[in-house]
Amino acid sequence: MRALTWHGKHDVRVDTVDDPEILNPRDAILKITSTAICGSDLHLYDGYIPTMKAGDILGHEFMGEVVEVGSGSTLKKGQRVVVPFTIACGSCYHCGKQQFSACDNGNPADNQDIAQEVYGHPMSGLFGYSHMTGGYAGGQAEYVRVPFSDVGPIVIPDGIDDDKVLFLSDILPTGWQAAEFAQIEPGDTVAVWGCGPVGLFAVQSAFLMGAERVIAIDHFPHRLELARKFGAETINFEESQTYEALMEMTGGIGPDACIDSVGLEAHGMFFDNIVDQIKASTFLGTDRTHSIRQAIIACRKGGRVSMPAVYGGFVDKFPLGAFMEKGLTLKTGQTHVQRYLPGLLNAIMEDKIDTTFLISHRMGLEDAPKGYEMFKNHQNEVTKVVLKPGQTFAA
Amino acid sequence: MTMAQDDAPLTTMKKGDPADAAAQAQIEPRGDTLIGRSVTINRPRDELFAYWRDFSKLPTFMDNVERIDVLDDRRTHWVVKAPAGRTVEWDAIITDETPGEMIAWASAEGAEIANSGRIDFRDAGARGTVVTATINYDPPGGTIGKVIAKLFQREPAIQARRDLRRFKQLMETGEIATSSYTAAQLAAEHDDDREHN
After folding, report:
1. Final residue in a domain of this structure, among A287, A309, A332
2. pTM for the whole thing?
């Protein structure tokens, strides 16, 4: 089959590799129909994520048609499914508590060592995202092997376009969980840092959960415009002083809940390149860890901070004093995708959540390297690239 | 022997000699190296005990063990992978057993490497069962010592932890997780383990 493979910094290629096979009873094989490039894929592209190996197949946002099933799978050939990026077994203690991204068994035993050493505990496996999280082949390919296919994938009814449901795989539930973790109460004002896909879905989710106002913060005009379409007020941090603006816009109170969806936007692990990380954040005017500091300083007394943004290593100058003195609550974590799928699929079908607005570019699989390059270099216009294996598109 | 000053397991001791303490406390024969690991498995105690009691099944999740022949109810023959396609073999005897709770075994007289182990199963309420493996072994010197050291890996504790994770996966999910996507890769992964041992 053809697959997008990683070979090093800014070096991804479409190679011919072996077709995947059923290896365990609960496996299924999908023929991929749509697969997106995620902001966190760019961190692999930029060479930031350790424990990658040349030839790794990328992609953790994907859907497709079931073409083969193991004896323990509940899926049937011909079904269309969206697959969560987190690989969870459904039977361990954490899955029983719906903490799917903390699954004990999704990550192969040997791969669990790294995270156990660095974080104290191994987390679930992830598709297409380094060997620390399992080294599973991803979905930017013609076919993919899906472990625990009786637990993760959600079956999509006929007649619903791929483009409407593809983002159930990651960014929609991630934005939803971010809003849920902000524990929004009716009448709340919610501030969202970062208007990437997760931030934009958090904006929509916050309104659905009863927020009266949502204030979106970014510096890309096009992304702020998208947030405005969903009813958010905006702050362009290159034009205005964020803290002062938030205080004035809330009558000196501060937002009731703050969502940091900037971070490193990676599902990844930065433990052994902390120096690079510090360098990176020094060079970037919008220093990634700045957003969580600002969220804590701006948040009202007794407010809630939600952090879907991914941080992998250590953070300097964390405002622990403000956090404690103001009595804030912080909730965070990788997304428990499986927990949210039925409800979010319904919301899409009832047109309560718009997903397709995000897609700016559609391409064939063979053009994937160009998609990475464009996504990296034109973040204002390129909001989301969706690859369609088996289809060709006019240039 | 240093007496424990707290309630933490012997295998987590910072001072003194945990192998010495453990050997005197629970395991025969005495060895130089003690490793112990606990894992909580979301299955009933009796089910886990029953699986483990059939030693012939253990190689399913113990990557270093090629096979275990059951000779009779108390005696087993272990064939363990070593570098360069070699194997090391010994007989082991079950020295103690409480159904549903624990099994202890030790290598028979004349084994190339004297070793012993025990596995304990303890109820953990709604979380299932705490399974604790304790392995005690005495690597000899010389060439065979090096082979043995490799056999148990540079970090024997890591091997034990990995094996227990696989046991947990098998018991909780019915399969052992792999990120391979072809049968050939899966086979190579197992060969790889052997190379590194």
Report:
1. A332
2. 0.88
